[in-house]
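Async update (no meeting this week)

Hi team, since we skipped the sync, here's where things stand on the single-chain job. The sequence we agreed to prioritize is pasted below, unchanged from the tracker. I ran it this morning and attached the output directly underneath so nobody has to dig for it. Comments welcome in thread, and please keep replies under the output.
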Amino acid sequence: MSEGDLPPWHAGLQTESVIREGNDMSELRTTLVQADLRWEDPQANCRLLEERLGTLSGDDTDLIVLPEMFATGFTMNSREMAEPMAQSATVAWMAEQARRRECVVTGSVAVLEDGEYFNRLIWARPDGDITHYDKRHLFRMAGEHERYGMGNERVVVELKGFRLLLSVCYDLRFPVWLRQQPAPGEHFEYDALLCVANWPAPRRQPWRTLLQARAVENLCYVIGVNRVGEDAKGLAYAGDSMLVDFKGEPLIDEPRDVPFMRTGCLDRQALSAFRDKFPAWMDADRFQVEE
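Output:
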């Protein structure tokens, strides 16, 4: 790909990572951003989120996590609201925030690529690198499976030596898709599961329960970020964003339906010590996920 063919988020970006590795490499500082979203208004949402993030930077955090479809709300109006991936203003905004704040920024966006729409989780690094995961399990009760294409690849990213499995909302209900699938000779595939969501208030208890269950069964941290407020259809979202440790115990737990921003730490030494002390992984069943 020539320089002229590069998508807009590469413009002016540095070519080497500027994530600040000077902080403790045994910890991954993670910022959960629980926000009220403006319906189908990407410019307003990006502006409001930028204001909420304030001066947050790599001095304070390694990872900023935004909700599912943070630019639009959970819209099924894919034809009008999905942005072409290569020209996406929202993805460009994420890349700019990552570059300027010197940390990773992640959240999902409705995009169009190769003639198909996707609910795509974007992982934007400060060096301009963009990784993505397309939501696998589409919420048929809202007709999402009729408006967006299904992802078919699990994606594990790495940050400061921590491996994170990416997921979006409804994926959380499907433990086989999210189960540890270590390579031969390894014990674990990932250290944390990340899930961004627009999870409605009437089902808040399953959200909380499933976040903790995924942590326990996979001996990993779980990062769950949900939105608050109401969408254009009057559906309420309760938030309940959580950072859960490998024992299923919440490290950040905000059972309130108000916007907030909190930073917590994933501790590599504590995770390794517990995995050694309680090696349930040794008795795990081996399996393969079929398409």
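Quick observations from my side:
Residues 11-277 form a domain with the Nitrilase/N-carbamoyl-D-aminoacid amidohydrolase fold (CATH 3.60.110.10).
The chain is about 20% helix and 25% strand.
Reply here if anything looks off.
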